[in-house]
Amino acid sequence: MFARSSGVLCQNISMARGWESKDVESQVETRRAVATNSGKGQKSLEEIRKEQERRGLALSRTRVLNDLENAKNPNHRKSLEAALAHLDKKIAELN
To answer: Which of 12-16, 21-25, 42-46 holds the top average pLDDT?
Structure first.
């Protein structure tokens, strides 16, 4: 003998957002940025993409520099220095 529920379903109203919704939000913000810019200051999608890539590379560069400050192993330091050189090259190519 099992008691039946009252038919009320519990919904989880506050759910963590996944990467898909964050990606969609990023795309919407990019489109809004393009739409809100007017006149001579208007940026193309390509310019916005390059700007976002430049910001990502700058963040990676900061992380590598922080890791390099704390690295003790010579092989690890060599790897981080190579990564730093690569990031500097990519940033220079975007400018």
So the answer is: 42-46
